[in-house]
Amino acid sequence: MIDRRIKFRHIQCFVEICRQKSLKKAAEKQFLTQPAISKTLKELEEILNTQLLIRSRAGVTPTTEGEVFLHFAEMSVASLQQGLYGVEQVSSGGKTRLAVGALPSVAASLMPATVEKLDAITQDVRLTISDGPHGYLINQLRQGELDLVIGRLGAPDTMQGISFTQLYNEHVVFVARPQHPMTVDPDLTQLTNWPVLFPSAASAIRPLVERFLIANGVGDIPNRIETVSGAFGRAYVAKTDAIWIISAGVVANEIEDGRLVQLPFEMDGTKGPVGLMVRQDNEPSPAERMFRLAITQAIKDLKMA
């Protein structure tokens, strides 16, 4: 039997501390003071009569007991969120809500065709689409804010509790405006001569890009802006001499239309799987099954597989 002293705030705070690996950051996310969230954690550990977290200068890490509790605590938070969405669904006239997270490359290249396919299959799904970096979307998925995420396979430590189904492979590209000096003399070692839009730390392609540059003798890039914003990248690169390092899908339309030019570097080393990610405890809903069918058809039509 569940101890009645355990409240939802205990579970929510514990999960947030584990996600942020910091009591201070978790307190900020929960709009609490650090002493308040520390007290909540202490209450939970006293109720369970065990230590759940180890604090050190490096941050906060779960004990073995904490790892076990975290697994089920995350499932509980996600299930409650789904229950709230279920109530919202009934209030909205019966349409099934499906919340999808898409990395910028997927949002730009694959999602428009997928939405068209889904609309042809059914009119009973109310789709919401969010984009952003890998880390942000995976956290939203774990919290139950998203039902599934389409994007690159992340590092092993970011994929715990997440199931990944590969859809296709995608590579990284270097792009610039037409008539950029690098289009005439494409020398990768000269990259540091120009402003560079660089993948942010939370992006799945960041490690691939860093390894690629090291392998090609490119050192630190001092004049760089870290971003995965497609809107900013398109506007900034079109008006400046900046070079944009980004997943190919984000700029596929611009390259095809001639608004941006892909620099002729060999990028096979940056190729990686893009797939569908869900929580491991996920039981696919009819809406999710229809979405999977739609995305499979879109990939086939776009010849991405």
From TrEMBL:
Instruction: Please list the residue ranges annotated as the HTH lysR-type domain.
Output: 6-63
Q: Which GO terms describe its biological process?
A: 3,4-dihydroxybenzoate catabolic process; positive regulation of DNA-templated transcription
Query: What's one GO-annotated cellular component?
Result: cytosol
Keywords, comma-separated and alphabetical: DNA-binding, Transcription, Transcription regulation
Cross-referenced Pfam families, in alphabetical order?
HTH_1 (PF00126), LysR_substrate (PF03466)
PROSITE patterns xref list: HTH_LYSR
This entry's Gene Ontology molecular function terms read: DNA binding; DNA-binding transcription factor activity
Q: Can you tell me which family this protein belongs to?
A: Belongs to the LysR transcriptional regulatory family.
- This chain belongs to the protein called Pca operon transcription factor PcaQ
Species of origin reads Cohaesibacter celericrescens
